[in-house]
Every structure is written in C-alpha cells, then in structure tokens.
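$ fold --in a.seq
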Amino acid sequence: MQRQGGHLVLTEEGLRTLNASLGDLVAESGARAVLLVGGAGQLISAQGETQHLDTMSLAALSSGSFGSNKAIAGLVGESGFRRMFQQGRQSSLYMALVGAADLLAVVFPNEITMGKIKFQVEQAMPAIEEALGAMYKASPTNPFRSAPQAAPKIQDLF
C-alpha cells in the first residue's frame, strides 16, 4: 500500500492510536462498526461490533464500490467523490476518503441520522489521518537478527 511515495508500516503504537480513534468514533456516533480500508481493499483496522460482520469482504467490496463511483464522478464532470452513502432498510453505510486512497467505512443503524454520522466522521478525521499518516512515514525495522557466522567446515581447517 502506498501513499505519497511511502509504504504503510503497521506499528504497534500507530495501530493503538488508530484503534483508539476508530473506537471513539464508534462510541460517539452510535455506529455499529467502523472499518479503515487500504486503497487496494485490504482491511487495516476495524472497531465496534465486528464479530457478526465479514469485515474482509466488506472492506474489499466497499473499496470496489467507492472505486466504481470514481468512474461515475468522471461522467458527471467530477474528478472523484470524497464521500458516499448507501441506505438499507435497517442499516446504512457511510464511506469517506481518507487522504488520497484509503477509505473509512461506517456501518450504522437507520435510527441514527446521516447528519450525526457525517458530523462525527468529520470530527474524527484529523486524528485518523494523523495516525495513518504517521504509519505511512514510519520506517520499517528489521525484526530478524543476523544469523551468526557459520562455523568453518572441518576439512577447511586442515
């Protein structure tokens, strides 16, 4: 996953900060779940009532849906849409572009107004962008230690 020339480096601190921001968004908005999806459709993080959701499929399909709407935007003279809303009978989905390519998907019951979700997403977006941006700027560390030098073969000694 790339953003502005960098790769996303998932760090423990970065994920902790990101999960706290997403968790706060769930708590403050009343949403069922919030997913942060990478530009290629991979799930970066999810908070809320995710145990009954197929988060991997939801992430991939949300990303695809948002991508196809970019083509629709072109047909109406826009370079792209930054927000998208889908309403069902019981649940709705609000998606917002994070940075240039990542996506925030909010699943919420229809008892909660779209305006509240949109307001809460806008309030949470700076913290989410900051946490995600820090992980894009992070340098990967090598978790593997160098192997010790191989002992010389016995025949090389004589």
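$ fold --in b.seq
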Amino acid sequence: MNKNLAITCIFGLIAIILGAFTTHGLQDVLTTREMSSLETGIRYQIYHVIVLLFVNTHSPFSNKLKNYVSYAFFFGIVLFSGSIYAIHILNYPVKSIWFVTPMGGLLFMIGWILMIHFFLFKVINKKK
C-alpha cells in the first residue's frame, strides 16, 4: 500500500503545482472558460487524492480492493484531469483527444462503485 500512497502523494503534489501555475502563470493567457476547465481538472484530481488517502489507509478494505480502487482513480486522474491539462496547458487539439476525458470520468465512477459495493455488502452481511 505504500506504493499506492506514494503515487497518491505525487498526484497531490502535481495538483498543487498545477493549481499555483494556473492561478499565477496562466490567468493572463487563458480565457475565463479555459481557466474554469483547468480548475475542474485540478479540483477532481484533489478530490480523488483525498479519497485515495482514505482508501489506502482504511484497514477494513482488503489489499485487493485498495488496489482496484487506486488503479481506477490513478488512471481516472491521468485520463480525466490529464486530458484537460493537455488541452489547455500543452495546447493539444481537443478534437484528437475528446474521448479521453469521459473515459477518465468512467474510471472515477468505477472506483466509487467498487467502494459502494463494499459498504453495501458490509451493511447487508451485518444484518444477517
């Protein structure tokens, strides 16, 4: 789990650096809409970093579940937030990667569904 936590911390650091860079370095370069889009990518990355810290330190989760959720969120961050960064910071053409952002969103949903499944079965099994 230390590997997952280390990767999580790297994603957290990247989000903070990109947040500062966006706010202080790109505010005069990007439109309000582009800034809002970048902020969404950064915000979703931070949200999932916080959840990953919980997931990888929550002892009732098995290592297998921790890995499944972590990988879903890791790849979700790369695809969802990364595609937004590529479009607005690297000027990557939207038309060439339009499908990547929703794939990242789908991976976020899969990670959340895995946790919902765990907690629901915990409640169901407790009632038996």
